[in-house]
Design goal:
The complex is a heterodimer of chains A (322) and B (638). Chain A is 39% helix and 18% strand. Chain A is of the alpha/beta class and 322 residues long. In chain A, strands 3, 4, 5, 6, 7, 8 and 9 form a seven-stranded mixed sheet that branches. In chain A, strands 1-2 form a two-stranded parallel ribbon. Classes of the chains: A alpha/beta (322), B mainly alpha (638).
Amino acid sequence: MKIRLLAGLLALGLAAVGCGGAKVETSPSASAAPQGGSSSAPGTVKIAINPWVGYEASANVVAYLLKNELGYNVEMPEIKEQLAWEGFETGDVDVIIENWGHPDLKKKFIEEKKVAVEAGSTGNKGVIGWYIPKWMADKYPDITDYKNLNKYAELFKTSESGDKGQLLFGDPSYVSNEEALIKNLKLNFKVVVGGSEAALIKGAQQAQAQQKPLLFYFWDPHWLFSKTELVRVNLPAYTEGCDADPKKVACDYPEMDLDKIVSKKFADSGGKAYELVKNFSWTNEDQNAVADDMTNNGMTGEQAAKKWVEANTAKWQAWIPK
Amino acid sequence: MSTTTAVGTPSRLGLPKWAAPAGVAVVFVAAYLVFRGTGTLPHDKEAPQFLAVTDLREWIDDHRNDNPLFLYFLNYIRLFVGALYDLFQTVLHALGWPGITGVMGALAWLAGGWRIGLLAVAGVSAFGFLGLWQHSVDTLALVAVAVLLSLAIGIPIGVWAGLSGRVRRAVTPVLDVMQIMPTFAYLAPLALFFHIGAPAGAIATMIYSIPPAIRITALAISGVSPTAVEASSSLGATRWQTLFKVYLPLARSTMALAINQTIMMALSMVVIANLISAPGLGEEIIRGLSRAQVGIMLPAGVAIVIMAVMLDRMMMAIARRGPHTKPSKIDLVGAGVLGAGGLVLIPVLPGEWPESWTVNVVAEVNDAVLWAETTWYPVTTFIKDFTTYALLNPLEGLLTSAPWWLVALAVLAVAWRVSGVRPALIALGCLLAIALLGTWEHAMQTMTTVAVAVLATLVIGLLLGVAAARSPRFSAVQRPLLDAAQTMPAFVYLLPALALFETTRFTAIFASIIYAVPPVVRLVEDGIKAVPAEVVEAATSAGSTPGQLLWKVQLPMARRAILLAANQGIVMTLAMVVVGGLVGAGALGYDVVLGFSQRTDFGLGFVAGIATVLLGVMLDRITQGADRRPSPRKRMST
């Protein structure tokens, strides 16, 4: 019986895709265009969720407006940065709401494969860097120059970094030049992966509160800067193109204009949902406020988004397509 | 490594029996001291092996839609599995919660009476209460697809293997490797060929859950009494008639076990499949992990356990039922009413579980974890630091600073001594392959973690096993706990570990200990209990104290069982340590995670997956011979 059912399904599948061989894209994803039989109901928008709270803040505000102002369904699958780009191809993702650079992925998925398109800036300025708690900068004034890091490597040793200093990193999927930087700047440090944004935040808070040494990867915009005093370590200044070859990077991260990427299909047939995503643009302060509510005030993403939306009507009104 | 060669050996030349191994050990120590730091193979992220695989992946990505292999074969599989998943998902969502509750309840009732039916209704409702309705249904759909396909492929192969010894011999080694393979290792190749998303997740799950389907089916078929078969064929039945009227009905209850095992394996894999963007409860686990919030993960973990228990009880009820017992009329009516009731309510009640009926425990669990973290901080930190500084770091230093050839020789020597020539050569081959793949240093680090975890597992397992063997009351208390522990999907063990130890290498060790201890306890307990009562009596009447009885009689005689426990413990620990890459275990497991997180490291992750398999086979071969070779003591007495 089962076999017969399977064979029937197989035949159906074959018939459905015709005889020209099968492309990888399965379920005609999302978008407002009604699609029978696919997993996504008509009018569903899939916003990939990347694992940092700033991203979630943006995603939740957009999702809130899509649901409550435009009547869309919103799915927010947990798919990490680079996999999310592949999701444009398979139809698992419609929107990446906050993209940090990724020129290589843009080349591949926008120019070559033509499965994604840019949907403009989020208005957020993003910059990644290495940070220490403020007390360290006070106590060792020259530590903020990368050239002196080796002198203090001893301070940063932990059980996980062995005889080298520890550079605490976040989620494995984050944009990262750390390995190359350590190698090319000849630093006596080892990247230790905390695994999450939360591990970085907790490390930073403890380090400042208990005067423990810590060198860690972090980024702005982030609500943490308004709660805990942190100082950035100066790596060799960024110059245009100094990070072109990922293996030879020996300079700091650039300030990035964070932008939105959507699937080609969503751009073509996403209707008002696409318009809203394209129009979405806010400031670092806006994002930090929502992210802070989500992390420190016990609100869910939806609650925090609702609070922001209710307090900032003028801002989001401008995003709603006519 | 070198010290582990000190295994007891029979005396031959009048030397004390420990002399030969001790001598070998001394040679190894001396060689290490002389050659340390030379011939090491430090890790290089940019090794050509990794880059080649990364390039291959880029090529495949570019040609996924124009290469004939993909266009006319692989993509069809993907589409077919995807369509099947969509079908299940659509049907399940169309049923909504009233429908699913009713139908599951009815099926469970038919399978095992009203109690199981009630359990199923409660279980399904729990998904809703936990606020995980959508994710649970997705997981259920994914599991259903994977299990259905596993059985569709596994049962015929299993039947064939059960009927033909030649097929069985051909299939067994493949299944062996498939079962040693840690779950993580499947993901990268699948992503390569089947891309990401639900179909790839279903296929990964399927590959993991096929082996028990084949193995247990083969066992069931070959266990059918030959008399029954002869009777059937002498009555003129055709081969197909014999198969369908004799073999399958007689093997029925064991086959139910096969289905049960397949479901359990699928459930434990389906979560990990989220790393390649498969939907379902795994999403919540990964979300919790990447936010370091046990509060997010716990409900999802509980939901998976409930799903496992529910399906396990249903299948076990079927397995226990005799071949000819039909459900009573009352059962039929009850189940019918329940099922029909659920279906009738579909249009009346909303399909989504109402939000006001959910309990949100995220904040509470997070608070509890925070409390535990801060309150037990001195104890947990002490355990973690002690293990790290006293065991992990020195051993890791030893293995990574020893020349590769010395480690290889040590592996060869130990494997030869414990398991014999053939396994020793296989183990050596695996180790050399690991070196060639460019993953030496990380493999050594993973091996360190495994070694420490196995050591702890064995110590704890022995203690608990001995205690259970000596006190029936203790055993009675412990058994249900062990049973429960063994139905739980592996990653669930990460949660308490993460709550107590945050993300470090020790977290993975702790998780693998609690994962691997239950089977070890069971094997040890059974091994000691299997010592013949006459032997125990003889020893007691000869004046042995309980301590002497244990050390001189019971433990030596249970040697095989204990070595088998060690073998099992190692394989399970490795699987867990690799999954521990998600929670700070580093080395190979982290490489696999990294391979999915950064495109440029795909090759590294892929190769790390292969290296993990090789490491698994190697560790298994080193220890597996233990239960086949006669023990030295036995040789002495004969």
